[in-house]
Design goal:
Length: 141
C-alpha cells in the first residue's frame, strides 16, 4: 500500500481488576492506517478523557503479534501474542514499571482498508493484576 489512509478508529476497552472493579473506556478518533512491508500500522490520538494526556497511540500488527505503543505524557509498549506471556514497559512521570501480558484470545481481521481486532488478556502492572477485553474497529473515512 502506498501512502496513508485516513480512518475512523473506535476502541472499546473493559478492564476488570482483581478486586472485581470494572472500568470501561471508549475512544473514537480519526487516525491513519498504513503498511510497511508485512507490517500494518494504525495510529490515532487519545485525549484527556482517558487520563493519558495527549497521547499518540500506534497499533503495530505483524503476523500473530500486535504491539500497542503509546507516546506522550506516558510511554507504553506492550505486545499481545495468543498463548504467550510478553513483557513490556510503562513509563510515567513517576517512574518506569514493567508490565506483563498473557493473551488468551486474539483475533485480527485487519487489512489495507481497515477491519477489526479482538483481544482478551491478563495484565500485570506494578503488582496489580487485571483482565482486559479490547476491541478495535477501523474504517476508511
Amino acid at each position: 500500500m502506498e501512502g496513508k489512509l485516513k480512518v475512523a478508529v473506535r476502541v472499546r476497552s473493559q478492564q476488570r481488576a482483581k478486586n472485581g472493579e470494572r472500568m470501561t473506556f471508549r475512544t473514537e478518533s480519526e487516525g491513519m492506517l498504513y503498511q510497511k512491508g508485512d507490517v500494518l500500522y494504525i495510529s490515532y490520538r487519545e485525549g484527556e478523557e482517558q487520563g493519558l494526556g495527549q497521547t499518540l497511540t500506534t497499533l503495530r500488527i505483524e503476523g500473530r503479534r500486535v504491539t500497542l505503543i503509546r507516546q506522550g505524557e506516558t510511554v507504553m509498549k506492550q505486545s499481545l501474542v495468543k498463548g504467550a506471556e510478553q513483557t513490556g514497559t510503562y513509563k510515567t512521570p513517576h517512574g518506569t514499571f514493567e508490565l506483563v501480558t498473557r493473551t488468551s484470545h486474539l483475533v485480527v481481521n485487519m487489512g489495507a482498508q481497515g477491519g477489526t481486532l479482538d483481544a482478551l488478556y491478563n495484565l500485570r502492572l506494578a503488582g496489580d493484576k487485571s483482565r482486559i477485553e479490547l476491541q478495535v474497529e477501523v474504517k476508511p473515512l
